[in-house]
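Trying the structure run again after the queue cleared.
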Amino acid sequence: MTPPTPDPAGPPRPADSADSPSGAERPLRADARRNRDTLVAVARAAFAAADDTVPLEVIAREAGVGIGTLYRHFPTREALVEAVYAAELDDITSSAPALLETLAPDAALRAWMDRYAQFAAVKRGMVDTLRAGWASGRIATPTTRERITAAIGTILTAGAEAGVLRADVEPDDVTAVLLGVFMSTATNSTLDQTGRLLDLVVDALHPERAARATR
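Done. Tokens:
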């Protein structure tokens, strides 16, 4: 049996406790999964508000667990950053179909852009760690642009079929425009300015705008 893992915030727990790290041979138990998800959620908020230098002890305390529990799930700061980035990317790319279920495609696109802006803000708080991890191979390089572009493509296709978004625009072109918006507003800007720029992008994607530009 694996010896207990000491927890600086409490007495040792056996290695098969609910907070043992996941492995290929055994999925996390429900309470351990909740702890992990809570840690990621707290870290996401902390990194968005500041950056990923927030002390891990603070994240553990806000999540209501001991620092030992945090380290069992995320042995290094890079592991936590990677998990936060993966969760953010999963959320932004999976949100497109959900938005289309409740909103018209052009409104869904605008709402999705707001969520993408949040993703960009969280990423800025982790960018130094991410770049170092990607360069060294300690953090797997994600297919971020491909997945973002695929999400945009899903909404553009629905919009073209509904006649509310242009059918002659490449999804990757929209990705490039949005990256320009977020890069230009990363410093010395306000949420209002970012919102106005995103409104302009959606406005340019309406078919009537393209028709007037042609005339």
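The CA atoms of residues 39 and 63 lie 6 Å apart. Worth checking whether this holds up in the mutant runs.
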